[in-house]
Amino acid sequence: xxxxxxxxxxxxxxxxxxxxxxxxxxxxxxxxxxxxxxxxxxxxxxxxxxxxxxxxxxxxxxxxxxxxxxxxxxxxxxxxxxxxxxxxxxxxxxxxxxxxxxxxxxxxxxxxxxxxxxxxxxxxxxxxxxxxxxxxxxxxxxxxxxxxxxxxxxxxxxxxxxxxxxxxxxxxxxxxxxxxxxxxxxxxxxxxxxxxxxxxxxxxxxxxxxxxxxxxxxxxxxxxxxxxxxxxxxxxxxxxxxxxxxxxxxxxxxxxxxxxxxxxxxxxxxxxxxxxxxxxxxxxxxxxxxxxxxxxxxxxxxxxxxxxxxxxxxxxxxxxxxxxxxxxxxxxxxxxxxxxxxxxxxxxxxxxxxxxxxxxxxxxxxxxxxxxxxxxxxxx
Length: 380
What we know:
Elements: H1 14-17, E1 24-27, H2 31-42, E2 47-51, H3 53-58, E3 70-71, H4 80-90, E4 97-102, H5 104-119, H6 124-127, E5 140-144, E6 156-161, E7 166-171, E8 179-182, H7 192-210, H8 217-239, H9 244-261, H10 268-280, H11 284-287, H12 292-299, H13 304-314, H14 318-327, H15 347-352, H16 369-378
């Protein structure tokens, strides 16, 4: 099977190819050297670093940057309170760039901070207004430490309002990072279960980009590449989680999935996932992939050519492809709703809450509440 290399800079002319992604992608085995070079090229002298406490310590970031410019006071799934704390942290500081080092939580929060610095707006609900003007251009560099989120190549971030039990998205063309640095060394300390969860998120991103009303030739090409790479490498990775070469392949597959859905947005699987995360704290990568096989069955007849391409590249039948997907989380992470504490009598309510505008309506097949209820029962 032949895989495509990520070019040093992917930037397609939207008018010619209906595809756009302006992020410079750099693959390296020396992340800090590339980060220093990126800071120099972008003219960044006083960046804020958004990262987790774990990465702050493991990567010895306080030896590389002033602790006064490192923000790590947030948890998983950044919420409005985390965003407000981040904004306050930036006050009275001369910040001229943003560095995000982490998984989805760090990178999504970094986009809120980037929006604040670019607009001077401090109210979260105004920051998530897509029509907000960004008079200040603030450059940014993102370094993923998981192989799932792909926020390093998108203009979106997810924010959770705990009081409202609701998920919000921040989105703006200026929130595309200038540079994404991919180094598998940053993922080596990721435990196997978290690694698999993030891989499932990347797989969901890829399929969601294919069974999507907004799909285009290039986004579909990237999605197929990502799916084939994940399926080809995941079983070897499960047996060799410290293998840097495999880590790099999965990290690249995640970024390629991001290149796919950065132009399509996600669809039904992600829309169904949001109430699962906000109500039951099911990790996003699990919540967004639980429904993949039921949705593959529903959407499959509308993406026959794409599925045939995937199966041909992998040398698998359609049934074998399904089996490979089902096997990824087996014996590593719980993969039924009941195993995450979901009550069967809550399914109707979850189905009602699964229709996020701009996500569910992207699905190539229009789903109604009965369809979603059936999906939820099938994964219970």
